[in-house]
User: Which sequence fits this backbone?
């Protein structure tokens, strides 16, 4: 049974690899695939950090310092996760700009574009929540600045700011970062790839 599953997977991978690549595809069409690779690297490094991080205000930073200084390769995976998030956000944003420039958001790819925009927002939220997790001076002031910014929003800004301040806990941010947002991102990724498979790669202008 296991051998049949492996053979089936190999056949599916082979079938994908033999598909022809359109002649107009160049490096600018690869930013989406690079973003996916970066997401997978973030998952790998993030899972590693789960074993050592403690989402409590008094010990969060201490647990990260212990992982970086006492665990073999901990500093490398931690820095890879930290810098990888910034690079990922840059690539996803660049991918969106390129898609917009080539007008690949037009019919029939509206849902592909919309799901991509939602993914950009989710990646941004993951970066934002990730910044807060060490709960050091940078995290504190980042949260304060964001709360001040949200408070300037018309109509609902003040209400959202009060709710965020009253309900904030580092534990809640932790589960949002490692569970809620990744599940949402994974769902939108699957939908995004289905749309890409359905409508194909857009032609040049």
Assistant:
């Amino acid at each position: 049974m296991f051998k049949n599953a492996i053979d089936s997977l190999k056949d599916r991978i082979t079938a994908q690899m033999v598909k022809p690549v359109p002649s107009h595809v160049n490096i600018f069409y690869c930013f989406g695939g690079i973003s996916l690779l970066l997401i997978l690297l973030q998952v790998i490094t993030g899972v590693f950090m789960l074993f050592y991080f403690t989402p409590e205000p008094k010990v969060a930073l201490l647990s990260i310092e212990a992982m970086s200084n006492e665990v073999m390769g901990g500093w490398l995976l931690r820095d890879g996760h930290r810098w990888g998030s910034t690079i990922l956000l840059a690539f996803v944003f660049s991918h969106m700009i390129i898609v917009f420039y080539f007008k690949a958001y037009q019919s029939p790819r509206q849902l592909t574009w919309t799901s991509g925009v939602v993914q950009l927002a989710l990646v941004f939220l993951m970066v934002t929540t990730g910044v807060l997790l060490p709960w050091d001076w940078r995290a504190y002031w980042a949260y304060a600045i964001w709360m001040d910014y949200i408070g300037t929003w018309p109509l609902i800004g003040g209400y959202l700011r009060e709710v965020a301040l009253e309900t904030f806990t580092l534990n809640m941010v932790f589960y949002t970062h490692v569970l809620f947002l990744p599940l949402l991102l994974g769902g939108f990724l699957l939908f995004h790839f289905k749309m890409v498979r359905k409508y194909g790669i857009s032609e040049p202008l």
In short: The helical segments are 2-17, 31-50, 60-70, 74-101, 110-132, 137-151, 157-167, 170-199. The first helix runs from residue 2 to 17. The radius of gyration is 20 Å. The chain has one domain: 26-199.
